[in-house]
Amino acid sequence: MALNKNQIAQRIAQELQDGYYVNLGIGIPTLVANYIPQGISVTLQSENGLLGIGPFPDKDNVDADLINAGKQTVTALPGASFFDSATSFAMIRGGHVDLTVLGAFEISEKGDIASWKIPGKMVKGMGGAMDLVASAKNIIVATTHTNRDGESKLLKNCTLPLTGVNCVKKIVTDLAVLEVCEQGFKLLERAPGVTVDEIKKATEGKLIIEGEIPEMNL
Predict the structure, then answer these.
(1) Are 59 and 37 spatial neighbours (Cβ–Cβ below 8 Å)?
(2) What is the pLDDT along the chain (218 residues), one digit of tens a residue?
(3) Is residue 47 flagged as an active site residue?
(4) Which of 72, 132, 155, 156 has its CA 20 to 30 A from that of 163?
(5) Rg of the chain's alpha carbons, rounded to an integer?
(6) Strands (E), 12-75
(7) Catalytic site residue from 15, 47, 109, 204
(8) pTM recorded for the entire structure
(9) Is 68 exposed, middle or buried (0-12, 13-18, 19+ CB in 10 A)?
(10) The pairing of beta strand 43-46 with beta strand 21-24
(11) Residue 131 falls in which region: left (phi positive, over 0), alpha (psi -120 to 50) or beta
C-alpha cells in the first residue's frame, strides 16, 4: 500500500541526526517537523528568517505572524531566532545547512532535480531552492513516485527546467526509499505491501535491485 504524505515525512525524519541544521521545503517536507525522533536535537531553518521551528500548532495556538517560507503557520521552540533574508541566505550559501528536504516534479537517475517550474503554468519563482541544492551538504527528495497522470517522476533525464544538477542523494516516495548512485536509483526499502515489480513499473530511470528489499519500518 502506498504511503500517504505524513508517512513519507515520518520515514524521512528517520534520516535526521543529532545536531543537524535542516531546511524543510514547501509541501510534504514541512511535515517532517511533526516527526522529529525522540532523543535527538535538530534545528529547523526557514529561508524567510526563522531558526528553531517547532511542530505545526494546534488550532488554539496559531500565531498568524509566525510563518515558514511556505506561508504556513508554525511554532518556534525556546531559543529560536528571527532574522532577515540576507542573513538566512548567508547561512544557506555558507554551507551551514546539513540537510535539505525538498519536493520535486522530476528527478533524474544522475541526481538532477526539477522542482520549481512547469512550462505554461503560473509560477511565483524558485524561492530558495536553487541556493539550497547548491549549498546543502545532503539533499533528500520527498515526493510521490508518479505524477497525477501516472507517469514516473524518477527519470533517465529530467524534461523540466532544472533546479540543481547531480545533487540529490536520497529519495523517499510513497512507494520506496532510493539512493542515487553512479549507476542509477538503488532501491533500499519498499513501502509496506508494495512489491518490487510495482516499483519497477513506476520507475522510468535505471533501477538497481540487490538482494531482498526490506519493507520500511514506520
Answers:
(1) no
(2) 899 999 999 999 999 999 999 999 888 999 999 999 999 999 999 989 999 998 889 989 899 999 988 889 999 999 999 999 999 999 999 999 999 999 999 999 999 999 988 777 776 677 788 899 989 889 999 999 999 999 999 999 999 999 999 999 999 999 999 999 999 999 999 999 999 999 999 999 999 999 999 999 98
(3) yes
(4) 72
(5) 17
(6) 21-24, 43-46, 50-53
(7) 47
(8) 0.93
(9) buried
(10) parallel
(11) alpha
Q: 3-state DSSP call for residue 200? A: helix
Query: Strand 154-155 and strand 106-108: pairing?
Result: parallel
Chain position carrying cell 512550462: 119
SS3 state at 34? helix
Where do runs of H (alpha helix) occur along 34-141?
Answer: 85-93, 129-135
184: left (phi over 0), alpha (psi -120 to 50) or beta: left
- Annotation: CATH topology of 5-29+95-208: Glutaconate Coenzyme A-transferase (3.40.1080)
Strands 99-102 and 139-142: parallel
67: left (phi over 0), alpha (psi -120 to 50) or beta: beta
Q: How far apart are the C-alpha atoms of 48 and 42, rounded to whole Å? A: 18
Query: Apex CA 104: angle with CA 29 and CA 203, to 5°?
Result: 115
